[in-house]
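Q&A FORM
Asked by: J.P.
Topic: structure of Reverse transcriptase domain-containing protein

PROVIDED:
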Amino acid sequence: IIFMIWLETPIVNDERFRSCIQLYKRFIDDLFVIWTGPVAALCEFRKAMGKADPNISLDWTGYDSQEAATDPMVVKERERGQVHFLDLDMWVKYVSAAPRTDTIFRVLFRPYRKPGNAYAYIPFNSFHGRH
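REPLIED BY: S.T.
REPLY: Here is the structure written out as tokens.
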């Protein structure tokens, strides 16, 4: 994790991308980014992240390849405001975009269970006895 922070920080703080990133969070090997900039800049950001270290490959959810995830035409076609992050299904709802004010949005979420979830833990509301 510390290595990834060292690797990502120069890219996230790059002037080309900084104003487009409204939220950037990492949990182990999962990233969550709210991007409000142009699609072309998002593709450049993804390219920069992908080239940061040749030993690390990024998998952009919903894309078949790194090339597809960095192609502005493909990204624009697949533009969406919903994603699964950890155990959450998250989406963005824009509240306002009035002139002379910042765009205001809310991040909404609900629990998400991955298709491969085996529920190999005891649910909180189980009547299983404590040991």
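FOLLOW-UP: The chain is about 30% helix and 25% strand.
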